[in-house]
Design goal:
With 309 residues, this protein is α+β, with helices and mostly antiparallel strands. It is built from eleven helices and eleven strands. The structure holds fe (ii) ion (FE2).
Length: 309
Amino acid sequence: MSKEAVINFYEAIFNSEELKQEIKAITRPEELIKLGARNSYYFTIEDITQANTSSTRKNSKPLFPTNSSDADVSNNFTQFYHYEFEFSEIPGFEEIAQEFEKLKIKPSTVHLNLYEQNFREEDCKFTYVSPASPAFKQMYEELQNSYLDLDVPGPQPEYAWRPFHLINLDVYVEHPLYEDYFRTKVRLLKLLEDFFATEFRFSGSLWYPPNSYRLWHTNETQPGWRMYLVDFDYFEPKDEGEAFFRYMNPSTKELVTLEEKPKVVRFFKIENEPSKLFWHCIANTTKSNRWSFGFQVSNKWMEKLLQSS
Ligand SMILES: [Fe+2]
């Protein structure tokens, strides 16, 4: 019996339609313990409490509420399609945060004027159209197949593709900062692998200048957990514009909007089964620059952040 079993059971629920249905039918911790045991996950109410209140989760929602007097257990479950932690909440994350800081570059070889000229308000607004809405499919397919004519010679910048109005830093390898940037990426990977005791792989190194967006997508060809380190150059919550990560809850089809704040690590799970696709999009219409560095990671990250150290 252990809180590890609680975490493992929690993870198993993500992967089983049957368990997702069953969890919706229970209202009490006693039932949860019983359901766990039926599936060979053995834990006590104390284990649930420990898993919920481990030191790195102080400000997070519990995995499984234990003090419910009503049906909240079942209703709360559907909220857990993402996890977020501020860097400062994670003990021992300081060195990772320092290396990450050095990755927030603006390569001199990016043609910012050209980039800015190709902002399209109507495309940005597509982040407000739900993938579950009748109008979505046609607009989505049109955008997927649409490239802007940037009137430049040679290979077109990545942002000529309409759904991708941002800068992919890893495309720019011919500027003076690149070598240092690359070494920092390698160091950061090592620090992350040591910290989480599992393998990491970069999945995307993205600079979102003011007025940028990544329109709806699922990443379904690469299923598994993603971790994103997100930050800004400066951040004024009261500034005009908005910065958010938005996803559609695959079960309820509700849109969930996570308003961005500086120095956050975010986790979500990419699925490839049609009924579980994790539709998501990002927009930054503030005057700040946003950076996000994504990684593929195994579910072992949970052992580090969801259990007490
Ligand atoms: Fe994505």
